[in-house]
Write a structure and sequence with these properties.
The chain is globular and about 70 Å long. The protein has a five-stranded antiparallel beta sheet. It has helices spanning 8-16, 50-63, 117-126, 143-148, 156-159, 194-198, 232-246, 258-267, 295-308, 321-341, 356-370, 405-418, 434-440, 443-456; strands at residues 22-23, 43-45, 67-70, 89-92, 99-103, 108-112, 129-130, 166-172, 178-181, 207-214, 216-217, 221-229, 250-257, 281-289, 312-317, 348-350, 374-380, 385-391. The protein contains 14 helices and 18 strands. The chain is an alpha+beta fold. β17 (374-380) and β18 (385-391) form a beta hairpin.
Amino acid sequence: MVNPADGPFLAQLDGQLPKGTLRPVAQRYLEEPRGRYHGQAGAVACPATVDEVSVILRAANATRVGVIPYGGGTGLVAGQVCPDGALPLLLSLERMSAIRAVEPAGNVMEVEAGCILAEVQAAADAVDRLFPLSLGSEGTARIGGLLGTNAGGTGVLRWGNMRDQCLGLEVVLADGRVMHGLKRLRKDNMGYDVRHLLIGSEGTLGVITAASLRLVARPARSGAAVMVVRDPAAALALLGLAQARLGEGVSGFELISGVGLRFLDEVMPQIRQPFAARPDWMVLVDLGLAEGLDPAQELERLFELALEQGLVADGVIAQNAAQRAQFWAVREAIPEANRLIGSISSHDVSVPLESVPGFIEAATAALARLGAFRINCFGHVGDGNLHFNVFPPQGRARSGYEALHRPVMDLVHDIVASLGGSVSAEHGVGRLKVTDLERYGDPVAVAMMRAIKAVLDPHGILNPGAVLRG
């Protein structure tokens, strides 16, 4: 059990920290992007060093005060907000935002957890390297939160998830001890790899304060195209054709539905779309190639082959960087359009690649039997991760469908589980999916999680209520 973060605890803590470290709770710390949860906190702590984080956690552990680690606030499963229970202390890493070192020769960068992703990308670009994680919230998402949730994004097909970009971690444990694990090694088999245990733990096992990140060589030539496909099965076949021809040169492969394009017409008409007639399905193919290869020519040849096989019906190939950026602007605007319209239930799921078309068909048919909905299915089809989001009919508000939120979610998640998929592909568990972890998670794996939590955080002060219940 944790005690409220007020009174004697805050007075004691304030006396141990530099002036200004403890702050009143601003409204922005209590909100989450989808507006389903509203948080609470006794105060906000904004440490500037790992030693200050250690002081905070040591005191919280001694007095049994819950601590909610806070990054950029962009999480979509309510891992950063505590809506009920005893008042916690909110721990923001925003002041720990230094880029400590950049080593282009070793393709590594050491950064603090409060660094914003876009700033890390820019620092890599400054030394002619690429930090390949890319997602829509990169202008506000912070490295600690991205590691805490093992974020994905649009480049997972080629580069992997956030854990694949991390070589080492500096972490403060619940009792204030600091793990100094900022190694820059590609090979290190010194026992259990606790780095990967902490990545994706959503602040429930320790607070990440810094990381050694992997950089990669920037592709010499980049290009993109949008292609109209017959259906998701054709999109999957097109992906196979693209990879057979270009291998790892395929950096991104995004499925976009006509529903999503029409949502843009409805609430974001300023977004310039590539096709005057909105197709039912299209894909965005992005390439990063070596010197000597022309992305436009490769995409043109890919389109010709796909047309011969009946996989595509139309396409536009970017002629320059600005047009490529326009294609990506369409893709990145879809989540914001979804937010403006308001979903009944949003699902971040993954299924085996071969099951992608069958999942979309089965879930769509099952929902049709439940009621009349608009379904915007889009996402990173190249790695099997789909955002399958369910909306009211046009002209109806989400508020009238709150009673269907859980039934819709359960229906979709049951189908995902039946296909051997995951009901949390890249957003994490947070508080939104605690019940889903209990329902769909392997019971032995969940028991192991509880055992690990009990050892590393015996008093349950770290992000109480997130990932694991109680």
